[in-house]
Amino acid sequence: MFAPSNFFDLQHTEHRVIFENVEYAWQALSKIATYLQFRLKPAILGKTIGKPFISSNVFIGAGTVIEQGAMIKGPAWIGENCEIRNGCYIRENVIIGNGVVAGNSCEFKNCLVFDGAQVPHYNYVGDSILGYKSHLGAGVILSNVKLDKSSVTVPGPDGLLDTGLRKFGAIVGDHAEIGCNSVLSPGSLIGKNAIVYPGSQWRGFLPANQIAKLRQEFSLIERRQ
What we know:
With 225 residues, the protein is mainly beta. It has one domain (4-212): 3 Solenoid (UDP N-Acetylglucosamine Acyltransferase, domain 1), CATH 2.160.10. The chain contains 1 helix and 28 strands. The protein has one helix spanning 32-39, and strands at residues 43-44, 47-48, 53-54, 58-60, 65-66, 71-72, 76-78, 83-84, 89-90, 94-96, 101-104, 107-109, 111-113, 118-121, 124-126, 129-130, 135-136, 141-142, 153-156, 159-162, 170-172, 177-178, 183-184, 188-190, 195-196, 201-202, 205-206, 211-212. A hairpin with a 2-residue loop joins strand 19 (153-156) and strand 20. The radius of gyration is 18 Å and the shape is globular.
């Protein structure tokens, strides 16, 4: 039910080895740091505009553009033909695939982003995995810590399943769309091709090809002069 293959086509990341022997998709999160420790070979093959901050423990692929004002602390592995825009903050243990947009005022931390994903405006992506060509609308937040700081749980077929993770944001499947200003609570699971309406506060599991609709009622009154 929550296997990586139910959310992702692993052919759309060159880092698929992270998912080997992984039963639940979120278990890959705890493998990112070790993977980078042993496989990352720092290099800057892309183009920088102005003077972005790039630490010594970063790989940037050919064709990728890093704009002035971006900060990449690392360890981080950024693929080819990406756009890392002004104001983007890439922290520790981040893997970004090919053709990814990481935009203004977006923050990344301990996450894996598949090829073609778009995270363009005012987003937080912490302890999360974004699938192939998934998209976060402006202002989408992937909340990764519960208010009581307890272990994150997810709804399974037999009740709540303890992930064993105190920090776990979201699993967002291939081609999924998260509407503007939505907040995904810790441990959210969004299936392939699913859609979350703008302005939603989502929690739990949204199966593939489903739409989570948010409907609002408005009261119209006469404006006083």
